[in-house]
Amino acid sequence: MASFAPRPIPSPLHLRLAVVGAGAAGLVAARELRREGHGVVVFERGASVGGTWVYTPAVESDPLGTDPARNIVHSSLYKSLRTNLPRECMGFLDYPFVPRGSGGDARRFPSHEEVLRYLENFAEEFGLIESIRFRTEVERVEREVDGKRWIVKSREVGGGGEKKREVYDGVVVCNGHYTEPRIAEISGIDAWPGNQMHSHNYRVPEPFVNQAVIVIGSSASAVDISRDVARLAKEVHIASRSVTGRVPAKVPSYENMWFHSTIERADRDGSVVFHDGSLVYADVIIHCTGYKYYFPFLETNGVLTVDDNQVSPLYKHVFPPQLAPSLSFIGLPWKVIPFPLVELQCKWLAGILSGRIELPLEEEMLKDVKADYQRLEMKGWPKRYAHNFSDFQFEYDDWLAEQCGLPPVEDWRKEMYVVASKNRVARPEVYRDEWDDDHLVEQSYKYFENLVQ
Ligand code: FAD
């Protein structure tokens, strides 16, 4: 396939910028910032690009992920994971996620290895590797005393553990938000004798042979993990807020899996009681209950807080108004198609840092943030849904695109996302292999052909 390399837009400013993380967000941030001629250093504590998509069989020393002293494993992928979005709409806007070369996984919902290959190709195609310092963890980011620039303290992971202190004009935080587990609160759990873990540390079903397993949650991971475990476990019980209809109820097509309501309590005799009145004796509870935003390296002297998983205040979920534009956050929104969204955030960020695109005044940004919070309240959503974009991701994408002078996100992509989401709910067992939107696939490939220069 021909190159998609965008033409450089040299900026009159030449800034020295630090990017934290070389996952999808950090890679596209580096590309966009370098396009404008800025000096970019990407700090990556792992040994390779890809972030979440670097699968490892390793798990953390605390399977529940609550011990602050545990060893941290970044990725939350399980071995059997295939994407939950169709590849045509999942990829970056100008670098389609289409099968490339031989030996890959050409399926529409491919395995995690294929996504990693795609990100590696992206990094290589745009010459990003030279900007990345691998095995280098950012330990602290703080403002200089005069408040203008940022001090970045980093440490070599392994090796000599060399420490560095450097000064940058700006910091772009792309550290991901699927590593720090959120746990369900369960009455009586401290006395319950079974094991607990978070989906962050789930890899394969073998440890659960003949066990009675409770899976808490209804996210894509909860659906996948319950099915994966059910292949070898004696019983699987899914505790979920969003199950409709009578519970407990057998999961269709499974002899050993049941839906329940949420958990009422756990007892010292090993039983777990659900709000639907049912009781099971379980060996293990797997919390598929999501993750927390976590920036342990960042010191903003109280300007920015994370309260009930709301990162605040953030203008358009990217800039803390008081520290804009030198501090920014890429990729916080969830319930989205992440790659195109982070690509647009980065194009906007790059334009702002170069002075091509204007940011409103600090007070105006704060007003916008307040209006955002009011919308959240009017919807009756808790703070922790502040970055849940389920009902306006495309509005947001198109707003960013407009700021950058780009066309809105393609209609076929928007439609495909909606159709695929419905199909996932309607056919949870087979949505990755059975669909009715071939006409959209055809449209997407026609669109990609026109992108090739
Ligand atoms: P990450 O990929 O998490 O990258 C962050 C990087 O920052 C990592 O490499 C990490 O090592 C590095 N880092 C963190 N802290 C530091 C530090 N202090 N110093 C240096 N480096 C640091 N998205 C889809 O589009 N399709 C899917 O099907 C899909 N499935 C998913 C399934 C699961 C189980 C999960 C958890 C996520 C899934 N996602 C999916 C979302 C996925 O997270 C995003 O697609 C995307 O990979 C996020 O990229 P990121 O760069 O923001 O974060």
Task: Please characterize this protein's 3D structure.
The protein is of the alpha/beta class and 453 residues long. It has helices at 24-35, 87-90, 112-125, 220-230, 338-353, 362-378, 393-403, 411-426, 438-451, and strands at 16-20, 39-43, 132-133, 136-143, 150-156, 163-168, 170-173, 180-181, 195-198, 212-216, 235-239, 249-250, 257-260, 263-266, 271-274, 279-281, 284-287, 291-292, 298-299, 305-307, 310-312, 327-329. Helices cover 25% and strands 19% of the residues. Helix 4 links the parallel strand 10 and strand 11 (235-239). The longest helix is centred in the C-terminal third of the chain and has 17 residues, at 362-378. It is globular, with a radius of gyration of 23 Å. The site of flavin-adenine dinucleotide has 32 residues, from helix 1, strand 4 and helix 5. Its EC number is 1.-.-.-.
Instruction: Indicate the overall shape.
Output: globular
Percent helix, as a range, is 25-40%
Write out the distinct hetero groups bound to the structure.
Answer: flavin-adenine dinucleotide
**SS field, number of helical segments:** 9
What's the overall average pLDDT, rounded?
95
How big a fraction of the residues is strand?
Answer: 15-25%
In short:
25% of the residues lie in helices and 19% in strands. It is of the alpha/beta class. The strands form six sheets. It has a six-stranded mixed sheet, with helices on one face. Strands 3-2-1-7-22 form a five-stranded parallel sheet, covered by helices on one side. The chain has a four-stranded mixed sheet with strand order 6-5-4-19, with no helix packed on it.
